[in-house]
Design goal:
Arc Repressor Mutant, subunit A; D-Maltodextrin-Binding Protein, domain 2; two-stranded antiparallel sheet; about 40% helix; rod-shaped
Length: about 300
């Protein structure tokens, strides 16, 4: 019987492996629910493509030729890899497998982020989650470059919106003062912006020129305070450590106070009504299933923390 020569394919390799494992073409056909002639035809095509016999048909049961012994284990590896590729690709298409890059401003690590990430990893155990600390003002660039799929930003006032990005407001977060627990201000129920003038002010993140620092300082000045910058912290953890050491005060979102230091007192600022807001930012021109799933999980977490944030 003459067959048109062609390159080997996965079906041929699968049929070949089934013959080896079942012991005969008839048994393999039964396992695969195909006709024995289909097995024989595909096996002959595979041998023609490879240029030699894979099975010694003169023996009963058939045994592998040297070529067959070489091909069989590699064929099993190839079939396993193809099956894994199909499973993972289908999982990625369904949003169950893949990679999720999350950019965040450090302050959200005190509230919704940790539990949301834990939940995401539990629901999607095959998804690799990369967390990257990125300032609010730098997240749009990271989204456009594909470094992250979703950003968690903190803003004060209106955030200039860009047409190629989509914005989802998560929650309003009142601004509160963080003062050393041993300072007289810590005995009060609330403070004014001017009260904070008795302490050096600790800016973050990065330096006094960062967007958040600049906005907070403007709010304090508009409320009649004259903040004296005593230290510049690179990030919020350092700023709170400096406060705990008695080196000054700073301003944070109320959610930062949750599950935080006991050597710092967090107090409402009575004459500053402006809130900070936590916002999720994504690219507007594409819907990435994993980022949508993470956003849904975030919203679920927010319902749990809202009662612990100062009321509007």
């Amino acid at each position: 019987m003459n067959f048109k020569s062609e390159k080997m394919n996965l079906r041929q390799l699968r049929y070949f492996c089934e013959v080896v494992e079942a012991g005969s073409a008839r048994a393999a056909a039964s396992r695969l629910f195909v006709a024995p002639t289909a097995i024989s035809m595909q096996l002959a095509l595979l041998e023609e493509a490879l240029g030699g016999q894979l099975l010694d048909r003169s023996s009963r049961p058939m045994v592998l030729t040297p070529l067959g012994e070489f091909v069989y284990p590699k064929a099993r590896e190839l079939l396993a890899a193809a099956s894994r590729l199909e499973r993972e690709a289908c999982g990625m298409a369904a949003g169950k497998f893949g990679w999720l890059g999350i950019g965040f401003t450090r302050s959200v690590i005190f509230s919704v982020l940790p539990e949301a990430v834990r939940t995401m990893q539990s629901v999607f155990p095959d998804v690799r989650i990369d967390l990257m600390e990125i300032l609010t003002e730098d997240q749009s660039k990271s989204l456009r470059n594909g470094v992250i799929h979703i950003g968690l930003a903190r803003v004060i006032g209106e955030l200039p919106k860009e047409s190629d990005l989509a914005y989802s407001e998560l929650f309003d977060d009142p601004l509160v003062a963080a003062v050393p627990i041993q300072h007289p201000l810590a005995t009060k129920e609330k403070v004014t912006a001017s009260d904070l003038g008795s302490l050096a002010y600790i800016t973050y993140p990065g330096n006094a020129g960062s967007q958040f620092s600049r906005q907070v300082l403007a709010l304090l000045e508009n409320a009649g305070a004259l903040p004296r910058i005593g230290h510049e912290a690179k990030e919020i953890h350092t700023a709170l450590s400096l406060v705990a050491a008695g080196l000054g005060a700073t301003v944070v979102g109320q959610s930062v106070a949750m599950n935080n230091r006991t050597d710092v007192r967090f107090l409402p600022i009575s004459d500053i009504a402006t809130y900070s807001r936590v916002i999720a930012v994504r690219k507007a021109d594409s819907v990435y299933p994993l980022s949508q799933s993470f956003l849904d999980i975030l919203r679920g977490q927010i319902t749990l923390i809202k009662p612990r944030i100062l009321p509007s």
